[in-house]
Design brief:
The structure holds two protein chains of two kinds.
Chain A: H1 2-24, H2 31-41, H3 45-54, H4 59-89
Helix pairs in contact in A: 2-4, 3-4
Chain B: H1 3-21, H2 28-46, H3 56-75, H4 81-107, H5 113-141, H6 154-174, H7 179-197, H8 205-227, H9 230-254, H10 258-262, H11 267-273, E1 285-286, H12 289-298, E2 301-306, H13 308-312, H14 316-328, E3 332-337, H15 347-354, E4 362-364, H16 365-368, E5 377-381, H17 390-393, E6 413-417, E7 437-441, H18 444-456
Parallel strand pairs in B: 1-7, 2-3, 2-5, 3-4, 5-6, 6-7
Helix pairs in contact in B: 1-2, 1-9, 4-5, 4-8, 5-6, 5-7, 5-8, 6-7, 8-9, 12-18, 14-18
Chain lengths: 97, 457
């Protein structure tokens, strides 16, 4: 458990530094799509929710897991759709700087 | 290591590449495609997880969630993106809270200190983000009053509430079987999230949304710690950092300190800001669309300064059309975008892109400020506080220190505005008394229509 936690903390920290560098290079122009994209990606909580909903631990767990699946799935689908809708709108002009 | 772990590693790589794509509008869509692929891989891989025995609820959940998310994602207007974002933060946080509760109920008394702490953090951060984001979404949608609600002892009672929540969490580490206390802790965290957002006005929302984004990321990461799902720790950490970075940027743009925001005390600032006496006085000159068209005839470069008022009046299409007319006449048109011109970070860029403004005409504050002095005309549409020169030269102004668009340096200034009412900060704008400045009063959309009529004839 302790080693698992340790590994987890290392991952958390390194991903944070990586995130800092990747995200500081995103121009303010795309900050709204960035936010909906990170939203969609953090819908990865779906994978944990799927296990809770499908593992048949107890009736309560199944219900809680089911609601969690609905929430996460909606974040994944909605997040990616709206990000793409926004990114589609960003067009370059006709060679005018 | 099972095959599933390899799936997750590839997904994590694709997510990071996806976010990296967002560093340029050219590659952004391609990047997002990679992220979508990563998500699909992770989900399909998980369906083969050895613990999953029934698929009934999984399928119903996936279908219901996809329909709900799909409807929101496809049909929501761009002006409503901030509330959708807030709502999705609250749903992500709810998922983390519920999974945390399920894990607690399943293991209860047998939880180790470490596991209990991670579950505790997951449900506390999740619960407060859930109610906080719901409140933010309600305020943005106009379902709740946008004005801040403040009362005496607000900060003291909020801090007391948060400390008791943490105290219960610490107690649970030593006695994880105390399930009544566990649920009391969840309840207190829900209440705390609600009270945290109550004192915040609608115009402060860019900071709040970014901060809640960061909290939602932390809730996600702590869920990753509870389930020891490493990919979730990664995405949670990325999401948390992203939200935190954005909220710092927003703080700087709104002249708030990071500490001020972290402790959720920003509602207080407004009460203080409402009062100060007006010291900028002089004559205000107004202009008609007919006179304005004459100004365009001699102009060679125009800078448009849009604010949220433009989006409220739905005037972005008119502005974009005006810009096209001017460009056809050989006039250079640029847009100056203040970081907080909108209801969430980058919102104004999206609204203008929707109105077919090419993104290479959109300039950030630092990029455009040096060009105001050479601009023949600055056209301010629905922006106020972010153009107030008092932020630079009046130490007693509550806006002092806030970075602004240096509109006052343009050769001529036209401000399209409904009335002389002060902006959100409740401060009179010195700009309007500048002899170079002319006011075009009235609804921005109607004024633009009249202007078109004149320009065409």
């Amino acid at each position: 458990m302790t080693t698992e936690l340790e590994i987890g903390l290392y991952i958390f920290m390194l991903a944070g530094f990586l995130g800092y560098h990747v995200i500081s290079r995103v121009p303010p122009l795309l900050h709204t799509p960035l936010m909906s994209a990170t939203n969609a990606i953090s819908g990865i909580s779906l994978i944990g929710s799927l296990v809770v909903a499908g593992a048949d631990y107890s009736r309560l767990s199944t219900i809680l897991g089911f609601i969690a699946v609905v929430c996460s799935a909606s974040n994944v689908v909605g997040g990616f759709l709206i990000t793409d809708r926004m990114l589609k709108m960003f067009k370059k002009g006709q060679g005018r700087a | 290591m099972t095959a599933l772990s390899y799936f997750y590693i590839v997904s994590a790589i694709l997510f990071i590449l996806g976010l990296k794509g967002l560093s340029s509008p050219k590659y952004a869509r391609r990047g997002m495609f990679l992220a979508e692929l990563g998500m699909l891989m992770a989900i399909i891989g998980t369906l083969f997880h050895h613990e999953i025995v029934t698929f009934q609820w999984i399928i119903i959940g996936l279908v219901v969630g996809s329909i709900f998310g799909g409807v929101m994602g496809l049909w929501i207007p761009m002006t409503a993106v901030p509330q959708r974002t807030a709502l999705s933060h609250s749903m992500g946080a709810l998922a983390a809270t519920l999974v945390g509760i399920s894990e607690y109920v399943r293991h209860g008394a047998s939880l180790t200190k470490v596991k209990m702490t991670t579950i505790g953090l997951e449900v506390v951060i999740g619960a407060l983000t859930f109610t906080g984001s719901l409140m933010a979404a309600g305020k943005l949608q106009g379902l709740l009053p946008g004005a801040p609600i403040t009362y005496r002892g607000q900060n003291v009672s909020n801090i007391a509430l948060l400390s008791s929540t943490i105290a219960i969490l610490i107690y649970l580490m030593f006695d994880p079987a105390a399930s009544t206390l566990f649920f009391l802790m969840v309840g207190l965290a829900l209440l705390f999230g609600f009270l945290l957002v109550i004192p915040i006005g609608a115009a402060d929302m860019p900071v709040v949304i970014a901060l809640l984004n960061s909290y939602a990321g932390l809730a996600d990461a702590s869920m990753g710690f509870v389930l020891m799902n490493k990919i979730q720790i990664i995405t949670g950490s990325l999401d948390g950092t992203s939200g935190f970075l954005l909220s710092l940027l927003m703080c700087r743009a709104m002249n708030r300190s990071a500490v001020n925001v972290l402790f959720g005390a920003f509602g207080k600032m407004q009460v203080e800001e409402a009062g100060p006496a007006v010291d900028a006085r002089g004559t205000v000159r107004s202009i008609t669309p007919e006179e304005m068209s004459v100004l365009f005839e001699s102009a060679r470069s125009v800078i448009v300064v849009p604010g949220y008022g433009m989006a409220v009046a739905q005037a972005q299409y008119g502005v974009s059309e005006l810009a096209n007319t001017l460009i056809k006449r050989g006039i250079q048109v640029r847009y100056a975008i203040h970081p907080v011109a909108g209801r969430m970070p980058g919102h104004m860029n999206v609204l203008l892109a929707e109105a077919n403004v090419p993104y290479d005409q959109l300039y950030e504050m630092e990029q455009i400020n040096p060009y105001f002095a050479e601009a023949d005309l600055a056209l301010v549409v629905g922006a106020n506080d972010v153009t107030n020169p008092a932020a630079k030269n009046n130490r007693s102004s509550p806006l002092y220190g806030m970075p602004i668009l240096e509109v006052e340096r343009a050769k001529a200034i036209i401000v399209m505005k409904r009335s002389m009412r002060p902006g959100f900060a409740g401060v009179d704008n010195e700009l309007y008394y500048n002899p170079k400045c002319m006011m075009l009063f009235g609804d921005a959309k109607e004024s633009l229509n009249r202007l078109f009529g004149v320009l065409k004839s």
